[in-house]
């Protein structure tokens, strides 16, 4: 990678880190470029060389999460709901807990759920619009997201292994009575 690309990547990373610092204290939809460049120490021209808006910076962050997720994801040979895949998901999101919680605190929960759903669609393939089976994918994504968020917010007391097992138990048999 040439020096200019490396420098641009550092600018993007600093801006994204500044965005995360605002999570929970300021709604990202009300965040200004001026606030971001002051927080990050990046020049205004550098911001606009890389992004057109704060929303584009948020999209960059989402793309980075998705890229990291797909880079390390095991092949789905054992199935998309296998123990191996579920364990990967809980380990991955534990590693990125601060980022997930930042999106949640910034009122970007729907965006994060969309990312999780898109990861499932990428893994399984999109379902035909007229197929009732498409709802399984959305059910799975929503259930996983809600369980994940509760686990992260409660401090991740259980291990990723325990969470994967519990998710699969609930998915297989339904919640305990």
How would you describe this protein?
This protein has about 180 residues and is mainly alpha-helical. The protein has 2 domains: about 5-55, Orthogonal Bundle (Arc Repressor Mutant, subunit A); about 75-175, no CATH class. Helices cover about 70% and strands about 0% of the residues. The protein has 9 helices and no strands. Helix 1 (about 5-20) crosses helix 2 (about 35-40), helix 5 (about 85-95) packs across helix 9 and helix 7 (about 110-125) crosses helix 8. The longest helix has 20 residues, at about 5-20. It is elongated, with a radius of gyration of 18 Å.
The total count of strands amounts to 0
Average pLDDT confidence is 86
| Number of helices in the DSSP assignment | 9
Major beta-sheet overview: none
Radius of gyration: 18 Å
The helix/strand class is: mainly alpha
Strand content: under 5%
SSE ordering: HHHHHHHHH
The percent of residues in helical segments reads over 70%
Please give the alpha-carbon distance between the first and last residues.
56 Å
The general outline is elongated
Number of domain units:
2
Query: Are there runs of 5+ residues with pLDDT below 50, and where?
Result: none
């Amino acid at each position: 990678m040439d020096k200019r690309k490396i420098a641009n990547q550092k600018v993007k990373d600093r801006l994204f880190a500044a965005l995360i610092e605002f999570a929970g204290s300021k709604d990202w939809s009300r965040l200004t470029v001026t606030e971001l460049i002051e927080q990050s120490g990046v020049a205004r021209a550098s911001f606009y060389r890389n992004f057109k808006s704060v929303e584009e910076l948020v999209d960059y962050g989402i793309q980075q999460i998705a890229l990291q997720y797909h880079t390390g994801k095991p092949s789905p040979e054992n199935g998309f709901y296998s123990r191996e895949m579920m364990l990967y998901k809980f380990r991955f999101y534990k590693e990125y807990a601060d980022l997930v919680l930042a999106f949640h605190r910034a009122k970007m929960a729907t965006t994060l759920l969309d990312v999780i759903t898109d990861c499932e669609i990428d893994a399984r393939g999109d379902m035909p619009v007229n197929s009732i089976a498409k709802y399984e994918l959305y059910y799975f994504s929503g259930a996983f997201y809600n369980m994940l968020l509760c686990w992260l917010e409660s401090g991740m007391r259980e291990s990723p292994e325990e969470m994967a097992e519990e998710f699969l138990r609930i998915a297989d048999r339904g919640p305990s009575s």
